[in-house]
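Why this split exists: single-chain examples teach little about how molecules sit against one another. For that reason, every record in the complexes split bundles all components of an assembly together and asks for one structure covering all of them. Below is a record exactly as it appears in the raw files.
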Amino acid sequence: MSTRHSKAAEAYLKDQTVVSRHDQTFFGVRQKRDRMAQALPEWEDLREAANLIKKHTETHLADYLELFEKNATANGVTVHWAQDADEYNRIVYDILSAHGVKKVVKSKSMLTEECHLNENLEQKGIDVIETDLGERILQMMKLAPSHIVMPALHVHREDIGDTFRRLIPDFDQIAKGYGQLAGGGSPADPNDPTFLTYVARMHLRQQFAEADAGMTGANFGIAATGDVVVCTNEGNADMSTSIPKLHIVSMGIEKLIPDYQAMGVFQRLLARCGTGQETTVYTSHFRGPRPGGEMHIVLVDNGRSQIIGNAEHWQTLKCMRCGACMNTCPVYRRSAGYSYTYFIPGPIGINLGMLRDVHKYHDNVSACSLCCSCDNVCPVKVDLSSQVYRWRQQLDDHGHADPMKRMMSKGMSVLFNNPSLYTTALRFSPMVNWIPGPLINMKLNPWAYGHQMMKFPKKSFHQLWKEKKL
Amino acid sequence: MSAREEILKRLRANTRETYDKPDLSQLKPIKYDDPVAEYITKTTTTAGAKLIEMKPSDDLATIVRQIADGDSVASNLPAVKADVNPDTVGSAQELMKVGVGVVAGTIGVAENACVWIPQETKEKAVNFAVQHLVIVLPRTAIVNNMNEAYTRIEASTVYFQEYKFGTFISGPSKTADIEGALVYGAQAARALTVILTP
């Protein structure tokens, strides 16, 4: 009676200190988000505005894409269209190879993860450097992200320090520079986050200087002007695009919003929901190429134009990848990103995974207690928990219902449709109480797994009702 | 059919019900009794920046030199009397070696300390690649919230003309990617000072 998620979560839960730390870290972000929400009297109006803007844009997406393309082209940008991951990877490689690019610096993009761009380019001999600190740590450690906004928070400083010492060639020299800057000497803790961030800064700035191209994702595309908007705290998207002269933007087609008024709504929501900050440090509007440079935007479908036709799940297209649903999710916080089989974890990841491939990612639908907390924090009001519920209802149709649950459902159907059988069973149920604890609380009884078996009352509700004792 | 046509065709065929564009004029974004005071507080607390209120008698170039403390200065603002001009610098890489970059901000936002910096110099790296960024912002340019800021940008006829870039910056580059510990000085400028002009 377990899915791949629940098995992985069980293994993760063995180390309670790790679990508590993970849980508290992300609940801390959730609390910061709450403080942000409470500080704005218009908070709920903002959420509703964001919901309505996205509903409108996603249901007029073809028109807005045409407008966006027209404006971007007029601004001197080359716009490309990719139907799927393969076509997207090919387009990016063609642009890079046409410019003789050997090294690309890139800022975080969930779309490139979705399409496995990095592996693809590396196989073809192009060096891809992730420049978001968390992503760079994971890239060096050959790990996948565990969260979409704070991808490496689960990694401990000792492991980061060891990785840097092993893989950054001029580590000692950088460390010496840090000592001079800090007034001599090395840090008391060799894995001090301030020190390691400095090492990463110097290492990454070297990469920016050497790279032939910069790649970014897009938090938003503004149809009315053709702007691509990228939000970061580190400034890595800006470094990636202000040193190299070639800029390639990867953008899912659902990222469009109509105009600057809509942008005002989303800029105010994104960081408040995602990390509990009033804003990201940088909110950059890219409207065209640098002087003497080139800018390309690749618009990627990869299944999105099918999702719009899915009556029950099209609203996942409204998602702006802020991560708030993960931070609040009690299951995510206690099972962490790697317990999920899709690369995006948490409530939105469960749904996006199912839309990607039901047969591959159905294990994740068990990772939900239907507490509905995600619905209440989502800035664009995606009906996340209802969608998970609907997927569960369809598991049997897809051939992925749990055999034991299916058998139990059939049994219950017989029991509840047969009043005399039900009454008899009810009368004898207290006998279960006489079975010795170890026998009833054993592994064969899935109900008793993880919690104590309940005590059956001597008299049922029906009986008490009939005896007028209620 | 091209990928473009296929995607647009599928979107049109698969879209079921449609929704009207909401009227955002109904939204009432937060306002402050004293937006300038709110901006100063946000900038110097949550945003992690420094702020200098310039008096009419002060000289910009002198203030910048005090901030630079002997380091080189890059700017194309004539009043700064900089050492490096980002309009004529040989490559963007050269700005990575500069100590202080000075740029003009044209809108300050009270709710979140963001300052709108339209690109007005050839190399926008001056905003990011230098060690310490200085933004010169008139105190008359402060608005309450992002919606007001975007309304101004939308109405402007000067932004995005020569250079097709603009950015909101609220503080120094920062990260909390190592165990959630907040560290200033990730990849871009390690420090930010706003000079509020009268």
